[in-house]
Design brief:
The complex is a heterodimer.
Chain A: E1 4-11, E2 21-28, E3 33-37, H1 44-52, E4 59-64, E5 67-68, H2 74-84, E6 85-89, H3 100-111, H4 119-129, H5 144-156, E7 162-166, H6 174-191, E8 194-198, H7 202-205, E9 210-215, E10 218-222, H8 223-227
Parallel strand pairs in A: 3-8, 3-9, 6-7, 7-8
Antiparallel strand pairs in A: 1-2, 1-4, 4-5, 9-10
Chain B: H1 2-11, H2 13-48, E1 53-56, H3 61-68, H4 81-89, E2 93-105, E3 108-113, H5 115-120, E4 137-140, E5 151-152, E6 171-176, E7 188-191, H6 192-198, H7 222-225, E8 241-246, H8 249-258, E9 265-267, H9 269-312, H10 314-322, H11 327-368, H12 378-404, H13 407-412
Parallel strand pairs in B: 3-7, 4-6
Antiparallel strand pairs in B: 1-8, 1-9, 2-3, 2-8, 4-7, 5-6
Classes of the chains: A alpha/beta, B alpha+beta.
Chain lengths: 228, 413
Amino acid sequence: MLDLEMENVTVRYPDLPQPALDMPRLLVPAGSSLAVTGPSGAGKSTFINVITGLERPCAGAVRWKGQDIARLSEAARDRWRAKNVGLVMQEFHLFPGLDAMENVLLPARFRHPRLPAGLRDRAAHLLAQVGIGTGRRGVETFSRGEMQRVAIARALLAGPGVIVADEPTASLDSESGGVVCALLTALARTEGATLIVVTHDTALSGRLDRRIVLTGGRCTGDSAMEAA
Amino acid sequence: MIRFILADLQRLQAGAMIVVLLVAFATALGMAVRIEERALRLGSARAADRFDVVIGAPGSETQLVLSSIFLQPSPLALVSGDVLKQLSQDPRVDHAAPVGFGDSYHGYPIIGTTAEFIEKSGFRMEGRGRGFSALSEAVVGARVPMAIGDEFSPQHGLAGQAAEEHHEMSYRITGRMEPSATPWDRAILVPIEGVWHVHGLGGGVDDLDPHVGHDHDHHEGHDEIADLGPPWAGDVPGVPAILVKPRTIANAYQIRGDYRTETTMAVFPGEVLTRLYATLGDARLVLTAIAIGTQMLAGTAVILVTMAHLSQRRRQIGALRAFGAPRLAVFAVVWSELLVVIGLGVAAGIGLGYAGAKALAILFTRQSGMALPVTLEVSDLAFAGMLLAVAALIAAVPAIYAYRQSPAAALRG
């Protein structure tokens, strides 16, 4: 379980006068859940890239359980991400030609020459939890809802301290979206992971502990502040 | 990871096939040039092996060797018959045989020579055959489609030129030679006297009935009377070339020296071939340069195809990184996928090059009778290995490109 502390984080791009992200301070307690909303171009993707270590901020600190990942090298951030972050994306990024089980195990295969003992069982357990069978069918034959459920199982494989989801329901119909929504929140709780979701889906954001709104790279609304 | 690479390759079959074909053709070209050139060298050296010294009238040495040993018809100047006579009496000479170009029969050249030559120069007879002992008898090479006992009338003109039949002369086949993998396999050997006669050169057969052998009922046994040389009696007509077998190596050098005069030329076929190979080597250099050019083009095409393909895969590669795949793993995936595809191409190219060289050699043998020993040698595999090594370097370019790609940028696009 990881808590997030962002301090004076800014991200600027050479061709833009305004910073893409300007976050003086943000605290997300371990085990809590946070929804990030806002219009397109508000800096939501940059926010996700920065907190997962995909991108290094120009300035500031991104501390997960006290460790500032902004100071890590690219390879170290790759390692840290593989160990601590479960990513769920709008476009699933499953790999065609491989079955559900192989897709869930794929990130681990890139990390370990031989799969650690028990990982296959854990993958099967996770697939059962998201309601996907372990058949040999290639994932390209799955429905979109099923694909996202496989992606959730994949995100949870390493037992990450935080699950980061980027518009996980945006490309799904409302029924599958509802299922994915329920799975994400329930599994984050049972796995004891902090949950951060970028979403426009009010049904999803409504289930989370806290909502912030990003506009022009800044935090312009925070349900925690309003409540206080 | 291997399963991922295989699944990936399967998904990209079409593009992979194009790269395999490109690489295969480029490799095959290089291989075929190497194999064919070596085969030509070996084949011609083997064909010339049994001939020690060739003597002819002064002129082109290459032409003399090509005509007398490889039986390529060409209008050679004649060397005096006295030379032939002199040589066949020379104690340093085991045997000396004239090579005269007669007419042809269905594209097979008719070569006038002596029975002694057939017997002594290592050509073996098939089964119950025997050499010729009369003017109307002939011996055929293994690739001539005629059987012992068959009769034929020569057609005027050299092999390859269509012409009317010579009705005044007909031959009966008394023997077939075993395959020698030389142009002599396509030859029809007849007594040189017959060739002289056809060309109106006399040579001890002036008094011969012009219908010799044609009409057996009336002239039974007539042609058996004519003495076939050697020994040569009276005036011996000129011949285009004389194949000489000296008794010793020292004799060979002496004879070559003695017959390098104003009216004669003496050569060791091996020497002439060596000079020819030097020319052939230059040709090979040109062909090799062309092959290398093709390989470079193929290499460039492979890089282009791969880069185009990589930019389509940016998101996939970005996703791999996002899920925590190390950069080195991304490098390994792209590099090994390319290497598998290029490796398949090189392997297919070796097979294709070998098969192509073999097919060419078969065609060549059918045309010339000379066997081209097509072989795959360690050096060829080393050559393929070198191609693969270069390919591995080339494949590293897109792999490094993938390695350096930022996962965030890849996902955003």
